């Protein structure tokens, strides 16, 4: 990301180019997507099981509170849709293909990481809960971030080396120089100071005696996301005085110091580029350079007054209602929908899923179809097809999706939708999720009851997921999801720390051990089902946001990958997993009763035959008994090595299914005073 090899050059010369400074009493402009990746990877959250959003959200909270203690006011700015000139599209496709490769390695227990598909939504949910200011730009956020940091004269946090070429008086802090492990250290006291190593553009300019407007040419020479590095191979070989194309930043900086003006430097650059279309190439070079010398701040007024301004002129800025842009700026409408509006395409991020199965995103195709219809009817130029770039096996391929008009065009535009009542828009949402009138009459959802809206939406999404899961989901997947939601959203870990329910449910919150994994890798059917659940959740919430309906259940209250995975593996070893879930939540408690009634409601309303008993796992009493004997034998070996206790009787003991269940639930017989 950013200027090739420039980060290595800065690190190699850190003693000269970086200054250690205490961070306090200042605003801090933060590259949202950049810090999002780093916060997730530095946190204890795992990427292997589909996303530990509960753990991730706690890390965000710790990060923001630590900044607040030092009187630092963070402002998160996130990228929007691609730029209108669309120079980075092929770079995006390359990254999507690389993500598929990394997902394949991770599924074979290699040490790779891919950011979970709903991490951005989890981050936004937590920032909104903490009242931390954030916004989403119309397009790429680089210029807006730099302009805001320059105007407010405060540091900017990002790993993107593009910012090292901007003239920012407050300096740039890369994430590794921010020292995230110390910030996320919960044991740190309020008196602990925060230090960071800050890069200042002026130091580099003075060191090499370069004119400020000439420095952005380094992005052209080395290459960045907008300008391919292979365009300057001949130039680099000439400067290196060899056939080698290796990057030598110091030589390029000394070359730039020879020219007093940008025009002279560009002219000299063109002469050394070889036989190319110089006029066209010069135009592209100047466009790349000017992006670093232009400072137009449109997000500052939004943070200060809520005023919405646009970075470019497009007919959609005038035709779409103000409510649409307000919701988009506050991340209530996804930037993915802007890609559909501007470019009629969508690039999907592969998840931790079974790459031998169809893409998990196919399960939510019907939801996207309704979304495309609304966007097409709201655009001055109708969208007849949408190009979806999605995984097919291990390759990224394009499929062209026709946009069908099952609803009269005049009824689904954003202008008319926002004039309708919330109940009417909810009915359209439920209709998209195939919630029938009979199900409404039976009380599965109640569009006219605002108090139940959020729970009804989640129930409808789960029913849709079960009905469209391919391969079909099984009961243990559904049970794992429901127990996870009850655990994350209802059981307060602070108020109920000594409560039996809290003690019971937290047993599945650890990182899965080797014994809980498949012998040849991960339990892929579980990951595939969870990936499809997240696809339905993602596209369903995108449609909700477009309809102007707020969903108030935070993502970290719905899904934790490691918890669902652990529980699903546990349930797969049981003949009847239902009673275990009830006992896990303490049978007879409000939590257990909620789980039981919720599960029955969903089971009664999914399509017949769409909820298999145990999926591909064929569990019998014999297999459970064998597993229990193995566990008992391992426990006996551990006890023997720890102390000379006679365990001969334990090794000879026959373990039955009934005895195993009695042992597991022995804790439940303890009555708390």
Can you describe what's shown?
- The structure is a single chain.
- With 673 residues, this protein is of the alpha/beta class.
- It is built from 33 helices and 10 strands.
- The strands form 3 sheets. A 5-stranded parallel sheet has the order 4-3-2-5-6, with helices on both faces.
- The protein starts with 5 loop residues before the first helix and ends in a 9-residue tail after the last helix.
* Number of helices in the DSSP assignment: 33
Q: What do the pLDDT scores average to?
A: 82
Structural Rg = 28 Å
Envelope shape: globular
Secondary-structure class: alpha/beta
The unreliable regions are: 494-498, 514-520, 615-624, 642-673
For the termini, the CA-CA separation is 59 Å
Largest sheet: 5 strands, parallel
Fraction in beta strands:
5-15%
Physical arrangement of strands within the biggest beta sheet: 4-3-2-5-6
> How many strand elements?
10
Properties at a glance:
673 residues, alpha/beta, Rossmann fold, five-stranded parallel beta sheet, three-stranded mixed beta sheet, 8% strand, disordered C terminus
């Amino acid at each position: 990301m950013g200027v090739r090899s420039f980060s290595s050059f800065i690190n190699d010369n850190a003693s000269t180019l970086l200054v250690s400074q205490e961070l306090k009493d200042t605003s801090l402009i933060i590259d949202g997507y950049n810090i999002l990746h780093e916060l997730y990877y530095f946190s204890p959250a795992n990427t292997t099981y589909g996303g530990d959003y509960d753990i991730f959200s706690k890390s965000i909270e710790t990060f923001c509170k630590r900044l607040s203690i030092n009187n630092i006011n963070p402002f998160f700015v996130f990228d929007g849709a691609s730029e209108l000139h669309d120079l980075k599209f092929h770079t995006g496709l390359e990254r999507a293909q690389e993500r598929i490769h990394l997902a394949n390695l991770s599924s074979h227990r290699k040490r790779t990481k891919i950011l979970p598909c709903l991490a951005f939504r989890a981050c936004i949910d937590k920032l909104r809960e903490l009242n931390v200011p954030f916004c989403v730009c119309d397009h790429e956020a680089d210029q807006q971030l730099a302009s805001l940091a320059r105007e407010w004269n405060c540091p900017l946090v990002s790993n993107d080396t593009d910012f090292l070429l901007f003239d920012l008086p407050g300096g740039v802090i890369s994430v590794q120089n921010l020292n995230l492990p110390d910030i996320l250290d919960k044991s740190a006291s309020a008196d602990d100071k925060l230090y960071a190593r800050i890069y200042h553009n002026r130091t580099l300019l003075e060191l090499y005696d370069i004119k400020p407007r000439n420095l952005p040419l380094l992005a052209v020479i080395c290459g960045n996301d907008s300008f391919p590095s292979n365009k300057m191979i001949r130039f680099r070989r000439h400067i290196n005085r060899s056939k080698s194309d290796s990057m030598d930043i110091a030589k390029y900086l000394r070359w730039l110091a020879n020219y007093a003006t940008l025009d002279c430097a560009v002219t000299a650059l063109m002469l050394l580029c070889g036989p190319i279309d110089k006029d066209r190439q010069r135009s592209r070079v100047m466009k790349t350079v000017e992006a670093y010398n232009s400072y137009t701040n449109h997000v500052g007024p939004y943070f200060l007054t809520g005023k919405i301004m646009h970075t470019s002129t497009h007919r959609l800025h005038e035709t779409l209602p103000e409510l649409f842009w307000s919701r988009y700026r506050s991340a209530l409408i996804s930037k993915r929908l802007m890609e559909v509006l501007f470019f009629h395409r969508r690039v999907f991020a592969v998840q931790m899923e079974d790459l031998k199965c169809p893409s998990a995103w196919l399960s939510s195709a019907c939801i996207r179809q309704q979304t495309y219809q609304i966007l097409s009817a709201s655009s001055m130029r109708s969208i007849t097809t949408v190009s979806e770039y999605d995984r097919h096996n291990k390759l990224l391929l394009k499929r062209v999706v026709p946009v069908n008009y099952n609803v009269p065009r005049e009824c689904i535009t954003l202008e008319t939708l926002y004039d309708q009542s919330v109940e009417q828009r909810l009915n359209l949402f439920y209709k998209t999720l195939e919630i029938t009138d009979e199900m409404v009459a039976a009380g599965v959802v109640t569009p006219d009851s605002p108090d139940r809206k959020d729970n009804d939406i989640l129930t409808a999404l789960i029913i849709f997921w079960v009905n469209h899961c391919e391969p079909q989901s099984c009961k243990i997947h559904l049970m794992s999801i429901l127990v996870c939601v009850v655990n994350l959203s209802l059981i307060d870990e602070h108020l109920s720390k000594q409560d039996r329910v809290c003690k019971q449910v937290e047993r599945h919150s650890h990182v899965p051990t080797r014994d809980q994994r498949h012998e040849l890798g991960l339990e892929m059917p579980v990951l595939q089902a969870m990936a499809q659940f997240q696809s339905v959740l993602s596209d369903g919430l995108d449609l909700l946001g477009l309809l102007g309906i707020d969903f108030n259940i935070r993502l970290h209250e719905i899904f934790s990958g490691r918890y669902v995975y652990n529980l699903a593996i546990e349930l797969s070893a049981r003949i009847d997993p239902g009673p275990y879930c009830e006992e896990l939540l303490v049978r007879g408690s409000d939590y257990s009763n909620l789980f039981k009634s919720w599960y029955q409601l969903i089971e009664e309303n999914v399509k017949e035959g769409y909820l298999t008993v145990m999926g591909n796992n064929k569990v019998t009493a014999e297999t459970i008994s064998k597993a229990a004997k193995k566990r008992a034998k391992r426990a006996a070996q551990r006890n023997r090595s720890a102390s000379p206790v006679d365990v001969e009787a334990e090794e000879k003991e026959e373990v039955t299914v009934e005895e195993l269940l009695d042992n597991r639930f022995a804790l439940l017989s303890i009555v708390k005073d």
